[in-house]
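Budget justification, computational time. The allocation requested in the original proposal was used primarily to generate structure tokens for proteins on the priority list. As evidence of use, we reproduce two of the resulting records. The first is shown immediately below.
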Amino acid sequence: MSVLWGSALMLMAGIVQSVVLARYMGPSAVNVDLVTVLLASWSLLRGFDEGVLLGAIAGLGMDLMSGGPLGVNFFILSMIGGLVGLGQTRIYRSNVPLLVTVGMASSLLEWVAGLVVLQAVGWPAEVSLFMVTRLLSSAMLSGALMPPAYYLTRWMHGQVSRGGPGDRSR
């Protein structure tokens, strides 16, 4: 059941990121990686298996909404979901500096892997000072968004596992 809710969350975040935020934040603005942040928080909460699965679903959705080669986001977000999910049982997840670090690292990994994969499939992907500045700004924003995203997904998971906000069975 939580996979369905996580999938819905990832697809809604992908639509908001690709359609709404892309329209109102110009091409020179800092990118908000909502999908990556929510995927990292869900993977920390639910582990490797759901991280890879939701990364694949989110990546496929992002591939269908982007103009890039099909499968690039699928591969990258599946990898991020799996890597972050590996830490699910090994770390203390409510540590705020750790959540910020995971958010920043996930965003950096997404950008670097995207550049490598796009260059591997023959697309021009050049690195400039402007791009590095946007990358670091985006990583800092992702780090700042990670703690609220983690607490949101933790609350959402608690609601789903209990049966919803109106469940009085406890």
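The second record produced under the same allocation is shown here.
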Amino acid sequence: MSTGSTTAQQETVGQASKGANTTGTAFDQKLFKRVFAFTKPYRKLFWTTFMLTVVLAGLGVVRPLLMGRMIDDHAMTGDPHGLLRITLIIVGLLILEALVQFYQSYWTSWLGQAVTFDLRRKLFQHLLSFRLRWFDRTPIGTLVTRVVSDIETIEDIFSQGLLMIMGDILKLVVINRYQKAEPAIAFIHNLGFKSGAIASTVAHDSHNIIAAGTSDEEIARAINLLVESTGGIVLVNGEQEHLLPLPVAGLMSADDGYKTAAAYEKINHLTRQLGTQLEAPFMALSFMALLVIPKLKLSDAGLFDGTKFEFTSLFVDQ
């Protein structure tokens, strides 16, 4: 789903909380299995690129941990030899990460092109079996969409999205601030966090609590900090906790504007160190609950399809 011109594209995929009324589908398992079958001739390559994705995600987690050790154990204690050793290790990891990322990107792109070629060839053979009257009845626009646009979308999924999505899926939670209710839970990708969790009471338009993160424990801590402070934005990363209180309806601060802006810049900067490429991750998160914009958004009542304007579920009932 798009979060607007100021943020990167993001997607929420997930299932509404238990008991919510949902209709429609956001994911067709049967169709996915049929498309995924085209990777069978390239199964070895697929799992190789998958493992490279896992390694890449692991390297992204190790580097911030080493940075923390470098500062806490060596820079703060005045240990130049230890500082140099950790610095060399980090430089080595950066080189290794660059190599892994290159091969991972190259092979996923190759895989996408190979799957698309096989799919186009099979589709063309299928079209040749149709009678001419089928082409007379079928609108040109529909035919072009199915043969060109939809195939290109599948290519993007395999060459750019599928493996990266598998390596970048975080839990997304929305909790009703105004009455007792079960949390709505879904998933989100393209936030890019390698560790930690964030939460906010600025969540358009109902301004419930919205949170996303890499672990349930950190998500729960972030949410509890907001409950205790009666609103705000918060970052939790391991033992670190950074909170900007917004006690006025969970949306505004009574402090000096410059002081609040400086506090926001600080927590925004710390959040970006979790690995995200977003310039304003809290702003992006706030729009993940805005149901009136496409495509999938999460409210306290469950997952919502903004194009069909109805609640939806992740899986098709079999």
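A brief technical remark on that second record: The chain has two domains: 11-27+169-311, 29-166.
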